[in-house]
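Notes from the pairing session

We agreed to fold both candidates in a single pass and log them together. This is the raw record for the first candidate, unedited. Please don't reformat it; downstream parsing expects exactly this layout.

Candidate A
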Amino acid sequence: MDRRQFLKAGSFLTASAATLGLTGCFGSGGGGSSEPARSYSFPQGVASGDPQPASLVLWTRLGDAAADTPVTIEIATSQNFATVLHSVTVTAQAQWDYTVRHKVTALQPGTTYYYRFRAGSNVSQVGRSKTAPAAGTPVSQLKFAFISCQDWSVNHWAAFDELLQQDLDFVVHLGDYIYETVGAAFQTGKVENRHSQIKLPDGIKRSDGATYANTLADYRTLYKTYRSDSRLQALHAAFPIIAVWDDHEFSDDAWQDRQNYATGEDAAKVTSRRRDANQAWFEYMPADVSLDAANPSFQNIRIYRQFSFGNLATLVMTDQRLYRADHVIPEVGAGSEIGSRYFVPKSTLATVESQKMSAASGSLDPVSILGSTQRQWWKDQMSAANTTWKLWGNEVSLLRMQVNGTQAVAGLMVQSLIAANGGLAALQGALMTALVADLTTAAAAVPTANKATQVPAPAYTQTKVVLGGAGLSGPVFDAGIKPQLDAALPAAQFFDVFLLNADQWDGYNAERKALMKHLKDNAIANVVALTGDIHAFFAGSVMDDYDAASPVPVMVDLVTAGISSNSFYSYFESVVDSSASFGKTKPLIYTEQGGVRTNTFNSTLTTFNSWLKVAHTDAQGYALVTLTPAKLSCSFHTLKTLSAGAAPALPATHSITKLEVAAGSPSVTVLP
């Protein structure tokens, strides 16, 4: 065993070269098995990942093992293994939960391989994988899927059956492969019956009744359970996966080694929990990364890495949790997640962000998602990429998602006036301008300390002028229209411009601008982010500075909905349904007639964010990409819903949104 192999074995990612053509033995502590004919199982199936031109990482987990056990890996170019190209024996070790991660090198680029594992008298199912094309090789097409957010306890996994019908080169997984919480309210009562409730061996129960993973045994239980599903196993066996984590592989809306379930909770480090989450991810992902178990830090693993596919595409995968700073406005300062993570006043966030950077002598580190080392690495990768396309595996959306509360409320008022008196339709623009001015003046008069509870009292001075021109007298307005308008007014805090989700790049605006400046200044074109996390479909241009008078598009962000997780819309629906302070804004999220709710959230977002070309906030699904030198073609597949506890029969897709990104243009075209 050479030194490189020894070091990899030390973190238990063993490696061997296919050119050996001989059986080798890698792995430490391998006491072996005294019963070579003993029966074993492979309960989590097989998997491959991180395709490079000359290497693949192969994975399995040995079941029914009571001690470190030899496992033989066989690789062939035919499914029947008529000729075994390479055979190597490794050790499934108890300390790594009997998982095997083995990197096979010296493979041929752009080649399909088949692999299997042997232990005792048993042979695993056969997996199929494919190496990347050699660097610089002309490549006419790549086809891949990108997915995220597959909560075992919510909705269904029919998406995996559909993906199996595709001819894919690889699958990109953007995180939330598992959900660390079980038994939460949002995970109750709406899941396919083939998914039983998960019970964690050491989980900690929250005040709301949910239980979250807290130990290595807990996280391993989650991965073992998720990978027990035959559909997910089949997906892994069919295609190599390129994966990173997001927050739920550790803790919801996490940063570094801090958890965020309650206000102020993230003041305390939970390093051992973070390290356990790291190790479980490492054990169960076929990723070409190393974990240093001897390193006491929570940053004992690096998962950001780069891939290239001939001359066509570079894929840069980032880690947006392990190095990120706290939310720019901490929950303690805001009093809750509202005003810190969600529904954050844009001007307040910009002020605090500037103050933090100033206190750090201009450094981005206190307001960063990537951290300084990874940020420079990202810039270097983008600058060095000599492929047509530069793809970014990006966990949280880069697209600005804002709402102007004053304009939104004024718009609802105008709609209400016109609905009651159709003759006012011709005055729609003038009424809108007048109401915005009147509401702005009234909201500004409310003391800051009272804005969360006090409703402003507009005099409607300019609104009266507009209506007076239409023949509506002041007394008539005061008696009939003013009460109607006043009844629609929310608390004064709503009359501001808000960022809907500051856990994504909107909450780290200075760093986003720095990254976009790097692309713009260096004329780095054809950059497309592949994004998950937000449980909705979005597509649009990422601007150099969203707050500039004339923002310039620099790259594109394509966001996939979750495979099964509850939608972005459902979160805001629950907020306006349960919060008195937001209740009057319901029409911005949905309207209801005859007991049927209609989503208005999509149009609210596109109204205030002109760069959003796709906004589908209430969906589960996945994204398929076909990449050529001339264009990137993407289709968003929205899935049918759960019915009587069962996933829909194939085809499970309810609708498809098709879009294109032309080479040389950082914009999205939605196809008819």
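Candidate B (folded immediately after A)
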Amino acid sequence: MNRTYHSLLLAGVMTLAGTETFAQTQGQTQTLSPIRIEVPAPAQSLTQPTAEQAKQKIEQVPGGVDLVPAEEFRDGRAATLKDALDYVPGVFIQPKFGEDSRLSIRGSGLARNFHLRGVKLLQDGVPVSLADGSGDFQEIDPLNIDYIEVFKGANALRYGSTALGGAINVHTPTGRDLDGVLTRAEIGSDGYRRGQIAGGQHGADWDAYATVTTIQQDGYRDHTEQNNLRFNSNIGLRLSDRAETRFFIAYNDIDQQIAGSVSRDQALNDPRRAAAGNLALDYKRDIESIRLGNRTSIALADGTASFGGYFVSRELIHPIFQVLDNTVLDYGVFGEYETEGQAFGLKQDYVLGLQLGRGTTDNLRYTNVSGQKGALRYQSEDTSQNADLYGEARTWVRSDLAVILAAQAGYGTREVEDKFLSDGDASFDKSFTSFNPRLGLLWQAAPNWQLFGNLSRSTELPTLSDLSPTATAPIGNVDPQTAVTLEIGTRGSQGRFTWDVAVYRAWMKDEIQYFTAANGQSYAQNADSTIHQGLELGLDVRLLDDLFTATGGDSLTLRQAYTFSDFRFDGDAVYGDNKLPGAPRHFYRAELRYDHPAGFYAGPNVEWVPEAYYVDNANTTETASYALLGLKAGYNDPAGWSLFIDGRNLTDERYIASASVSTTATPASAVFEPGFGRAVYAGVQVRW
């Protein structure tokens, strides 16, 4: 499947969508009367819960979860997943290049020096991550978000995630969220330009939403130019008062250059310069994809049934040490049934679900000739399959105390059929099974706050690249990593305080770590025993009220997110009890914000890493501590328009945002990713 095919398919989809919109518009011109208003659309969608509905549901999870509404990050620059998740404790997400980031939850995937492992990304319940568990961030558009659900660790059971990091599910808007037109424009430093146009409409038994966004920027560093176009849409149809189906259509065309990792000295003293090898070989990552999905929900007499399917076609052209040319097809089906009842006089509710997914990759690699394809160096047909069955039973042993029993059974395969045999046969066919039970307690101590705890097991299967290294290493010689995690915490609000706190400890076996071979390439290998433990603290404090208004209504609020991470080997034969590299021990974000009832807001913010962290298993080389100061201000007019100005790193601090990891490193090792310098962004949004 190539870009021409994608373009033709997208044109057909948009033509059909345009035909539907024209038909609805023609019908609407005949009914623009008071009668039209007397037949409003249903108050809510059955297939896309509102943020408030999702919040009520997520707060019944006895563990670390979070819900981030779009309003929390659309008041400033909204270009990356970091912009959206900056204030979620336990989530470490730092920029690498363009919109790419290093993402880890509770230390997941820290040894992964490229792309993503250990967190399942979804959009509207449809996987963005590949079937083998790897993934990218660029296909998630922060301007196409209604709210984000974050499920840490085994709390992501119902989304089919068995990984240490859990899952992130992005919910997109519908025609019930936006009934009209929205336009937005952002500009800023380093040639940053971003635009959006979105439209939504609904009737008594249908709704439709579509948005197109673009982003272009020269980039803070050399060789980080990007030019991206995204289209997202969905159409919901009410089949009856109790049934609704929704179709999702998305298209992404993403072109971005890669500056690469550099030495510690260059990262701190010459951060704009790209790595020499990246310039010589014209490192890039270009993606074109189409995503189709459907979800149908039926309200039954005793519960709710939901089911659907998805199909994703993705074309990747990726000049790095070789030119990767991958055509990826991912598809699957899912179903879930929820019900409430009683047993032995106790209130109970149950969830039972099944997810089936499959992915195939036509994997080609060529000699990199200044970013262009040279001779064919590798070819294979890669296949991943997953089947996950999960169930959960919640029993209220008292009106304020619930016991949760849950389990997930999984089966997965990873297969590579080597079709380039002149250098040997690297084929393999591996299968894995897993069983992950979970016990949780949820105590509603008061109407506005609760205590929770859980004990769970998680299993993370190796990705295809883990099993088929480019370095000199055994093929298919990586086992799944497992963890037993104990977690306790509390969330709620009281007076001026709103909090979300979790403490956890994970005892891990066979954690998938990356090691460096003699040829300089990295390969995956299982560690023996490791420990991940930490504290996740979100705390908002309404410090002052009625500062400058005679009638009241203004406020000064301190918003904070602190993550303490202690990840280490546990009696390893080589590394003893050394710290695991790749993430800071302390990470703090805070914003002091003033809000006026007329719509004005302003305040400074800070990002603080007070202690350097290691970049190698041997614990010989560190990053550097840093503190970043920002300032954001804006105005939201009741008439439907808004504007903002967003200053980042205003002191122009030289810092290391993230780092790749290795077995042993020196300050000269090219593993450091420079952070972005001083930048200012401004934007305006109009809705009518």
